[in-house]
Design a protein that fits this description.
7-stranded mixed β-sheet; alpha+beta; 600 residues
Length: 600
């Protein structure tokens, strides 16, 4: 295993030799190398002055060298050279990330890199951004490689930033143990819209990889491909992540499955690391040694959340928020009568179950749709049994004269001390009431909505804290036609957008600030693939996105083995155009995998 350590003054001569071998690796002639030698020499006094570090392999051999130079707020990547025999083994990536981390500690907010054209692909892959500002000569020691004749260098920059404040507060800034108890969380509500066997929930448990910016261990109900965890760790710079999978056959109680293995339970709970679940359950409370508070999840109920929203709005102070009317009906025929009356009046209606996941149990009914289905009673016969909520349909954003987002969300969490923390806003992709994905990052939430969304979300967080709830939450909104937002529900658990926030925080700290991250829950595959071929596909998607200037991370791999195969994916970039292009390319490539098998 390669590790980074501070260089020693006594190593200066040997490090100079490494630098020259690295330079010669690219085929430069002797005259050019001789011209570079004075600039590339490392003297004993440079080791401290230039903040030189080395990469050392498990045999104690130095295989790379890097330096961080300059003073805040501007720093420079002075050296980055790898021993030729170690090229392609991740040494350069390790050194670059160490330089970026040390730049944060130094207080630098701008890292300048003068790259030879041979190295531009590497720096792009590391997240550095090319800039028009002129660079130094090609013989500069900042260039890992240079063409003979003094070809002009390409200047890159990165914006070093620490891990986001909210992310440090979430897990104390350190690593955490992630428990993928999605099925266990859903099962406690016994809602008719939820799959009794929780098969989809066990796929979504794969999102446990992203419950915090840096996991120490993943605990999963079903087996997951080893190639998946290796690729995710490589893309997000994680090391030493333990995976405990395949703990359940059918029962959704993952926390109980861990408790049934005393050695594993002791290992996970005795590590001193935070234990992070998808959502709170009584069984998780027993595992974590955390008392269960009766009623702490009451606002997971859509009607209870609606009541909470009404109480907040009754106090005033949220002019950008409008609350749709909602009625609770106990019987199907009462719901049918109300739906029929609203249809005759030309009004669209939303029917909801008390609970549900990702839009399950939520049906949007226009008058035309009700008539096409054969009337209100025919519609109700197709819905799950149990109490229903009838809610006003909130009209779209056409009157604003734009094609802005329709579905938005606010994410935050309440820590164990009862303090509410803001994470931010996101834009969701929702089709016919069902969640499909979300995008987070700078500028994603439009200006007309941001202030209202943040203020109301924070107010909900304070109310949840006062009610005794502890953990992650979100508030979902629909935009109306007048520039206002209508809150529709709260989720007292981690969510798809929360996963995107975690990955954005990690990538910003790993690669520099400014990442947009999109999570897409379902990317269709053109064919079911054996595990080895799925690994190859994901690796190819990662390489292709890197060429576009984006980052690809497979989020849910196990759906690829379903009869109708699919993947959950994360795509990140620093610009909307690149993000959209990368997602479209990923979808096209994933769908095209069936072509390799020829016509059916």
């Amino acid at each position: 295993m390669v590790k980074v350590r501070a260089a020693r003054p006594a190593e200066a001569e040997d490090l100079t030799g490494l630098v020259m071998r690295s330079k010669a690796h690219w085929g430069y002639d002797a005259a050019f190398l001789a011209a570079c030698a004075p600039e590339l020499r490392i003297r004993a006094g440079d080791v401290t002055a230039r903040r030189v570090v080395v990469a050392e392999n498990g045999r104690g051999e130095v295989v790379g060298v890097a330096s961080l130079e300059g003073t805040p707020p501007r720093a420079e990547l002075g050296l980055l050279f790898v021993e030729p025999s170690a090229v392609g083994q991740g040494v350069g990536r390790l050194l670059y990330r160490d330089v970026l981390r040390r730049a944060v500690e130094l207080g630098a907010r701008r890292l300048v890199i003068d790259s030879d054209p041979h190295a531009t692909g590497f720096y792009r892959a590391m997240g550095a951004v090319p800039v028009a500002e002129p660079a130094a000569s090609a013989a500069s020691p900042a260039a890992p490689a240079a063409e003979a004749g003094g070809t002009a260098l390409v200047r890159f920059e990165a914006a070093p930033v620490p891990l986001a404040d909210w992310a440090r507060a979430w897990t104390g800034g350190g690593r955490a143990v992630h428990l993928g108890n999605v099925g266990e969380f859903n099962a406690q509500f016994a809602d008719a819209t939820l799959d009794r066997e929780q098969r989809p929930a066990h796929h979504y448990a794969c999102l446990a990889a992203f419950y915090s910016p840096h996991p120490a261990a993943l605990v999963l109900p079903r087996p997951v491909p080893r190639g998946w965890t290796e690729l995710v760790c490589r893309q997000l710079g994680w090391t030493g992540v333990e995976v405990y999978d395949g703990l359940l056959d059918a029962d959704p109680g993952l926390a109980e499955a861990v408790r049934a293995r005393p050695a594993l339970a002791a290992l996970l709970t005795g590590s001193g690391l935070p234990l992070v679940p998808w959502g709170r359950t009584r069984a998780f409370g027993r595992l974590a040694g955390r008392p269960w508070r009766d009623g702490e999840l009451r606002y997971e109920s859509k009607s209870a959340a609606h009541g909470l929203f009404g109480r907040i709005l009754a106090d005033g102070g949220h002019p950008g928020i409008v609350l749709p009317r909602q009625w609770r009906v106990d019987g199907r025929w009462a719901a049918a009568r109300m739906l029929a009356a609203r249809t005759r009046a030309g009004e669209s209606t939303v029917l909801k179950s008390e609970h549900g996941v990702g839009g399950s149990g939520t049906t949007v009914l226009t008058p035309a749709r009700v008539r096409a289905a054969g009337g209100a009673r025919a519609v109700l016969r197709r819905l799950p049994r149990g109490p229903l909520l009838v809610e006003e349909y909130v009209g779209g954003a056409a009157s604003r004269g734009d094609e802005g987002p329709r579905d938005l969300t606010y994410d935050g969490f309440v820590d164990e001390a009862g303090r509410a923390h803001e994470v931010g806003g996101a834009v969701m992709e929702v089709a016919d009431g069902c969640y499909r994905g979300a995008t987070v990052g700078p500028g994603v939430v439009p200006g007309w909505a941001e202030k209202s969304l943040i203020a109301f979300g924070a107010a909900v967080g304070r109310e949840l804290a006062d009610s005794g709830y502890r953990g992650w939450f979100d508030v979902d909104f629909v935009a109306d036609g007048t520039g206002r937002l209508a809150p529709t529900e709260t989720n007292l658990r981690l969510t798809g957008p929360s996963i995107a926030f975690m990955v954005a925080a990690r990538l910003d700290a790993l690669r520099g600030a400014g990442h947009l991250v999109r999570i897409s829950d379902r990317v269709e595959l053109g064919a079911r693939l054996p595990e080895a071929q799925l690994d190859e596909l994901c690796a190819a998607l990662a390489r292709g996105c890197a060429e576009l200037g984006a980052v690809f991370v497979p989020a849910i791999p196990t759906g690829a083995f379903e009869p109708a195969p699919w993947l959950g994916v994360l795509v990140a970039a620093r610009g909307r155009e690149v993000l959209d292009a990368a997602e479209a390319w990923v979808r096209a490539e994933a769908l095209a995998v069936g072509a390799m098998f020829g016509p059916s």
